[in-house]
């Protein structure tokens, strides 16, 4: 190789080295952004959970409020019914009092009659007392001058005796009637007043219950207002978190695009370097051939795989790409699983830049590498690792060991979960493809 060729190779190597070092800052920024996005997603999930919790509390309170309102309405119906009954009883009491007034008038008449009879009886008693203490009706009869006079005297005596009997009988009956009427009207009034007192007591009780229920309703209304305000605040915070998450996703996409562009430039530099090396080797071989007249066979670089990717680990294919059920229900499997013992070497499937190296949710310990192959950006994912041997922003070569196989994150045994994404890894895995189509079985 002449001095000009050596100079050219040195320049190409220097340019390649510079491009390998430059993305470190951007890659570190991407790692930070992804961590920030994970925190934003966690916050979104927590806020969403809190919003749902507040919504459930509001729903429960609303149900309780509806029951209280129904109870208040029921009490109001009972109060109205009781008031109606009280009005009826009051009407009956008013009617009874009218009857009492009318009865009082008749009682007064009866009392006058009784008093008059009492006076008459007293007069007769005084007459008897003045005549010697007794009236001998036989003497009256024997004092008759004739039979006709006797008959007249006999009739008169009978009339007097019957009149006395009538007076006494009427007096007794009127006194009894007076007593009965008084007792009847007093009993009726007492019963109505008792009923009125019972209804007033019932209404007071219902009013008290209504007041208590109204107090509960007021407390719950205040609680509903508080919960609604808290839910509204959480929803605003959630909306801000969504905006922040979307902003972060855009920044991450931009960072990954920058890394992909750098990987593309690195690939172009690598191809230029390989072309320069082949040209220099061919020129050197031609010089040797012309000098020695001997034939030297040229060995082309070995291509590991026509797609540009190689198998990242040795082991058994334990789970294919696509739908599967590992005991927790059907799920979409966005990659393949290669099973082997803990610590088995995990190698970069293609050259590129480490865009993430660390812990990430169900992936456990995970490495993501951004590649550019034939002008197309790709991202490979290596999950559930027992160890990580590279750092974010580091340039890696195809076949380079980047970590060890393990069972971290959501895993049921030692294996490598391997994904290939066309373009940047976006979290939704919507651009994931079947790795078997790129690395073979």
CATH class of the largest domain: Mainly Alpha
Largest sheet: 8 strands, antiparallel
State the CATH architecture of the largest domain: Orthogonal Bundle
N-to-C CA distance: 42 Å
What is the SS-derived class?
A: alpha+beta
State the domain count. Answer: 2
Strand content: 5-15%
The assembly state of the depicted protein chains is single chain
Q: Provide the residue-averaged pLDDT.
A: 75
Shape: rod-shaped
Task: Give the low-confidence spans.
Answer: 1-27, 291-304
Task: Give the count of helical stretches.
Answer: 5
Rg from Cα: 58 Å
Give me the strand/helix succession: HHHHEEEEEEEEEEEEEH
Can you put this structure into words, describing what you see?
The protein is of the alpha+beta class and 441 residues long. It folds into 2 domains: 251 residues, Helix Hairpins (Orthogonal Bundle); 132 residues, Glucose Permease (Domain IIA) (Distorted Sandwich). The protein is built from 5 helices and 13 strands. Strands 1, 4, 6, 7, 8, 10, 12 and 13 form an 8-stranded antiparallel sheet that branches. Strands 5-11-9 form a 3-stranded antiparallel sheet, with no helix packed on it. The radius of gyration is 58 Å and the shape is rod-shaped. The relative contact order is 0.11.
């Amino acid at each position: 190789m002449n001095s000009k060729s050596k100079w050219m190779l040195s320049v190409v190597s220097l340019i390649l080295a510079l491009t390998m070092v430059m993305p470190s800052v951007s890659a570190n920024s991407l790692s930070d952004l992804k961590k920030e996005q994970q925190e934003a997603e966690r916050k979104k999930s927590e806020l969403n959970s809190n919003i749902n919790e507040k919504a459930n509390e509001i729903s429960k309170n609303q149900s309780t409020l509806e029951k209280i309102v129904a109870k208040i309405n029921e009490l109001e119906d009972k109060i109205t019914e009781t008031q109606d009954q009280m009005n009826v009883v009051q009407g009956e009491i008013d009617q009874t009092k009218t009857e009492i007034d009318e009865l009082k008038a008749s009682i007064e008449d009866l009392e006058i009659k009784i008093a008059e009879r009492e006076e008459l009886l007293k007069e007769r008693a005084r007459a008897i007392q003045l005549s010697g203490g007794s009236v001998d009706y036989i003497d009256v009869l024997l004092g008759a001058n004739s039979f006709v006079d006797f008959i007249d005297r006999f009739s008169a005596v009978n009339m007097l005796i019957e009149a006395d009997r009538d007076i006494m009988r009427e007096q007794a009956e009127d006194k009894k009637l007076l007593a009965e009427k008084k007792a009847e009207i007093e009993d009726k009034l007492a019963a109505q007043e008792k009923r009125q007192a019972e209804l007033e007591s019932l209404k007071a009780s219902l009013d008290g219950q209504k007041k208590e229920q109204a107090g509960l309703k007021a407390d719950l209304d205040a609680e509903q207002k508080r919960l609604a305000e808290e839910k509204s605040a959480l929803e605003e915070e959630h909306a801000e978190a969504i905006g922040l998450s979307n902003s972060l996703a855009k920044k991450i996409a931009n960072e990954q695009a920058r890394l992909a562009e750098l990987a593309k430039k690195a690939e172009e530099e690598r191809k230029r370097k390989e072309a320069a090396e082949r040209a220099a080797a061919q020129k050197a071989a031609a010089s040797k051939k012309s000098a020695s007249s001997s034939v030297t066979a040229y060995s082309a670089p070995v291509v590991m795989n026509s797609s540009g990717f190689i198998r990242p680990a040795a082991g058994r294919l334990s789970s294919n790409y696509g739908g599967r059920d590992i005991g927790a229900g059907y799920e979409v499997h966005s990659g393949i699983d290669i099973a082997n013992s803990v610590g088995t070497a995990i190698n970069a499937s293609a050259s590129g830049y480490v865009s993430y190296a660390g812990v990430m949710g169900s992936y456990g310990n995970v490495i993501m590498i951004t590649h550019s192959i034939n002008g197309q950006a790709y991202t490979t994912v290596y999950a559930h690792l027992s160890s990580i041997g590279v750092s974010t922003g580091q340039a890696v070569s195809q076949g380079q060991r980047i970590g060890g196989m393990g069972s971290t994150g959501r895993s049921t045994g030692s294996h490598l979960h391997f994904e290939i994404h066309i373009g940047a890894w976006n979290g939704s895995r919507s651009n994931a493809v079947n790795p078997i189509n790129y690395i073979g079985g």
